[in-house]
Amino acid sequence: MLWIALHLPQLPLDVALRSRFRSASGELDPLVEMPVAICENKRVGWCNPHAEEAGIRPGMSETNAHALAGKLQSFPRDVDQEAQALQEAALCALRFTPHVVLRPSGLLMEVTASLRLFNGPQSIASQLLSGLAELGLHARLSGTSTATGAWWRAQCDHLTEIFQYDFEHALDPLPLHVMETAQPHLDTLDGIGCQSIGQLRRLPRTGLTRRFGKELLRELDRAYGDEAEAHQWFEAPTHFDAKLELPARVESTEALLFAARRLLLQLTGWLTARHAAVISITLALHHESTRQRDHRSTPLTIVLGMPSRDIDHLTLLLRERLAQLELMAPVIELTLKADQIVMQAAPNTELFPTPTSDAENTGRLIERLQSRLGPTAVRQLSMVADHRPEKSVAMPVVTSHQGKRRIAKEDSASHSESARPTWLLQQPLALITRQHKPFYHSPLTLLTGPERIESGWWDDALAARDYFIAQNEQHQLLWVFRLRTMGDITGSGWFLHGFFG
């Protein structure tokens, strides 16, 4: 069993920085060039490196902190925003495992069943840290065989090995302050020369219980696997409708894509936890209110040709849509909603291409074209139950993969067994005759035919024709027909209707 712990030691600071500061390019930039501190009860609780360089330390009064750094930016702690950030991180973690546990300042994940799928623990760790960085959060990560042990290790700086399965090497050297139940007794334990977990384990259990209570030993046993642990798993919401307040007025679509990806990270984790894929999503851009207009929104709906939960693919489609958008006013907030989802298991890996993978690649190409050119710009050929060649083909708009499969099945059922040209002229071309033969660059030799078509009496467009496959001296294969009734038409009665490739 492998547990991964993600500890967010600067969570209040990360929340404040990602919601208040923005770089010139539009991307959120947590490393601002000014001292920043988060205060609680008029005391500094967390500070960034620039504040530490000015001599500001946690526990210092807010007044003294401002005296040390005149440019200090101090903000009150926002517990609600911290809870929201933890939920965003949990949704991101659901991409890797459904077994996620929320902690006051981090997450726990049981990833044993996911190791092979994601190419081992190092790959999972790298993707987790990258995803949290996109959310504007900074984490310390560690892994071991128990949840409590992993959480202890994640609270320590400068671990030599991120993943360690030997309890003696992984936990014994850790300082006592990582234990939650040891916090009230740190001074007492330090007074008797006990400063590490290993030293605490070597003390008599009876004396520890009598002096510090049973909970200290129970936490110790849970970390070393001697006592079972019970967890309350994080449950994803039944519907996905996430909101993101932007740090400033955004007037460029490039900055919107950066912010929207934070919402897509949560969406893909939510979809993975529900074993589902999305068919349609809507990104709503909420604009700033002005004197001329009230608060308005611009909805961007993306309908996928095939269900997907691939974040890179969804990001690509959203980039294409945003590139075509002209903002009516600055944007101050984004919301992302999953309009339609379908249940879908994780895809199997394939050594060789299959019809399923080919269809997926085709569907993604169509989705990208629709995102760039518009939903009605991509069309496909479809057979119609009409024997007249010019009316036997339609070009409906491509709507979904299921629709394409249905039309293809109808096409194969209604397609004539007779040969048809690959290029059909929009209007038949009248031909002359020489020596009683139709002529196109040279006299034509009739190879096959006639194929008689007599249809269209129901819409006053009667077609009474005899079709032939002909060849000229340049060895071109042509599809020609002769009218059976001339009516008001003058000429030879021969027409060219298509070319064979």
TrEMBL record:
CDD domains (UniProt xref): PolY_like
Pfam family, one: IMS
BP-aspect Gene Ontology terms: DNA repair
Keyword list, A-Z: DNA damage
SUPFAM superfamilies in the cross-refs: DNA/RNA polymerases (SSF56672)
Protein name stated in the entry: DNA polymerase
Region spans: Disordered: 398-419
Biased composition (Basic and acidic residues): 408-418
Organism: Herminiimonas arsenicoxydans
Protein origin, superkingdom: Bacteria
Domain (UmuC) ranges: 23-134
